[in-house]
Amino acid sequence: MVKQTIQIFARVKPPVRKHQQGIYSIDEDEKLIPSLEIILPRDLADGFVNNKRESYKFKFQRIFDQDANQETIFENIAKPVAGSVLAGYNGTIFAYGQTGSGKTFTITGGAERYSDRGIIPRTLSYIFEQLQKDSSKIYTTHISYLEIYNECGYDLLDPRHEASSLEDLPKVTILEDPDQNIHLKNLTLHLATTEEEALNLLFLGDTNRMIAETPMNQASTRSHCIFTIHLSSKEPGSATVRHAKLHLVDLAGSERVAKTGVGGHLLTEAKYINLSLHYLEQVIIALSEKHRSHIPYRNSMMTSVLRDSLGGNCMTTMIATLSLEKRNLDESISTCRFAQRVALIKNEAVLNEEIDPRLVIKRLQKEIQELKDELAMVTGEQRTEALTEAELLQLEKLITSFLEDQDPESRLEVGADMRKVHHCFHHLKKLLNDKKILENNTVSSESKDQDCQEPLKEEEYRKLRDILKQRDNEINILVNMLKKEKKKAQEALHLAGMDRREFRHSQSPPFRLGNPEEGQRMRLSSAPSQAQDFSILGKRSSLLHKKIGMREEMSLGRQEAFEIFKRDHADSVTIDDNKQILKQRFSEAKALGESINEARSKIGHLKEEITQRHIQQVALGISENMAVPLMPDQQEEKLRSQLEEEKRRYKTMFTRLKALKVEIEHLQLLMDKAKVKLQKEFEVWWAEEATNLQVNSPAVNSLDHTKPFLQTSDSQHERSQLLSNKSDVNARKILPSPCPSPHSQKQSSTSTPLEDSIPKTPVSSIPLTGDSQTDSDIIAFIKARQSILQKQCLGSN
Ligand code: ADP
Ligand code: MG
């Protein structure tokens, strides 16, 4: 058992605007516990925070200042926890702090750069690397991803996510067994055998979370996400299985309701969040106070799920994320205060070992059989029932392998069952007799041959010799013909081969790289000694591709609008940058793959040369009557050192290629996610534009009368979507959106002088196709284009 208090760390986020001096200081004297001092500027101390103190000091295990990178965070915070999970203990890492303080950045990572990947992808990488190294145990890894929003649990990996909104999914519910163990109903566990598979699941969950999010339901700041790695391990042959869970938790923003300053529905939500975090606080207060017998875990879903992590069987770590800017100081102070309480909680982690009943049954059955045999021997009891067919077959197999075993020490183990012993003797006797008969037959047939030969006359003998000679000649001629044919074929092949060498060369290497943009399959070698192809993108394409494939279903007008939207979107720069990096990485991987192939064939040649050299030396030794050449062969030594050098080179390149492969996979997933985000934002914007068009355009209004705009089921669906998105437009006013939302209502209803200068296509003069869906697409597109043009003109002025 390991007793440990919850470890607390602090991480300060780099400021968005330029650094404000003198707000905080970090004291990291090696002999003392590190402390963070938050200094309130006078203006704040006098008014906003209602007391006279001007500075607050908080102790942490370690404090990571703005410049700490993701690697440092992983090495210092997550790696030790992952290590204990590999040893069989439960672990939890949770990030706590106000919205925007860097919780998601710390737990999952940034959305742009590979170097910004957070604790989850790095931990997955580390765990799978360790599992690969340890061949003494059999490991199984499962992943689950739970989101808790407004006290309801949702499975982010539920395959039905594609079809439904968050609220339509079956809720994950908590069940408690008589031993008070928590079970989560409707939360799927997904087997992940490789790092890539696990990473795909992470991105799938994140993408699902993003898709479910609407401006009204900003789940990312108001929900808690728990990514769990379930690890089981077992030694081969042992019936004991170890289970360990690692929860990586991105909590909802810890800001207070008063500060969010919103009303209505959003206030209800904010209260909920506070309620949920409030219950977390209550649990933590109860745990940090001695002599409290009742801990109110059951009050909320999150505390129920994390019961073991808080004061139970788990090694838990908290990261307090801080955005130490002037306007956030009160929130930062309350985050630190929360952390100080958390640090008082003691956990007791034990190894979670369980006996696998199936394996125990097998072992016990064998033991019973052995004991029965022994008993029968001791008591002299005769067992009379005949051996079964299967038992007989098994015995005969044992005898065969016993006879074939060259080891003089090998034994024929049949236990103490006399029936089996007897059967073995019988069988051996039979084998022996069979062999004798066979030998006799051979001997007699040989002697018969001899008998036949004796009366052969001299003349017949000569005849046979002539025939033999004839046959020999025939064979020689045929062999010569064959040789000639073979030579011809080789020459022809060689000529053709020279022409096609380029082509063949590109086909033969095991390193085939797809086009990075297409996200095709990439095959890389996986073991230094043996070329083994594997695909890194199989699952990714099937899971995420469906989501980015939505565009193919768009009408042409919409597609064109999408292109323009994309071009103007801030994220497109990131996507393009990543595309460039991806291209570079791909060509680097390709070049590396080729060098690896070269190195491999060089290694093969060197090995061949060494063998040849060795044979020559031995032959030389024999011809000179020496068993082993006395002098070490310098040429061979040289070849060997060359071989070693080549092997080293191969290994270095291989390691680099492996790292590249992970990077490429990650970048592709980041890009896929960014594309889904872009598309989603486009849909929202498109709907807004279409709604405005309906409200403001007389052409469309008249279209509405003359052509049944809403008759097809598709357009009905579109309309209901549009209508439902109207509320989004309102919500957007409260929550600014990053998308280039060229709204709209004012611009399209009232004309400014600037607008007049922009050439407009009168909507009513557009030749319509008669298809209401396409028509509305075209009109909406033209409107959208005008609106973008206006925006651009405004920007350039
Ligand atoms: P939270 O999840 O707490 O609401 P985020 O993780 O989304 O906050 O961070 C808000 C923004 O700040 C994001 O754009 C993120 O990339 C950025 N950010 C957060 N922490 C860091 C950091 N340590 N270094 C650089 N950027 C950061
Ligand atoms: Mg977040």
Automatic annotation (TrEMBL):
The keyword ATP-binding applies. Residues 742-754 have a biased composition (Polar residues). It comes from the Eukaryota. GO terms for cellular component: microtubule. Residues 712-770 are annotated as: Disordered. ATP binds at residues 97-104. Pfam families: KIF9, Kinesin. Residues 5-345 form the Kinesin motor domain. Transmembrane segments: none annotated. One of its GO terms (molecular function) is microtubule binding. It is found in: Cytoplasm, Cytoskeleton. Residues 640-677 form a coiled coil. Keywords: ATP-binding, Coiled coil, Cytoplasm, Cytoskeleton, Microtubule, Motor protein, Nucleotide-binding. GO terms for biological process: microtubule-based movement. Its main location: cytoplasm. Gene3D superfamilies: Kinesin motor domain. Belongs to the TRAFAC class myosin-kinesin ATPase superfamily. Kinesin family. PANTHER family: CENTROMERE PROTEIN E, KINESIN MOTOR DOMAIN-CONTAINING PROTEIN. This is Kinesin-like protein. It comes from Pan paniscus. The lineage of its organism: Eukaryota, Metazoa, Chordata, Craniata, Vertebrata. The gene is KIF6.
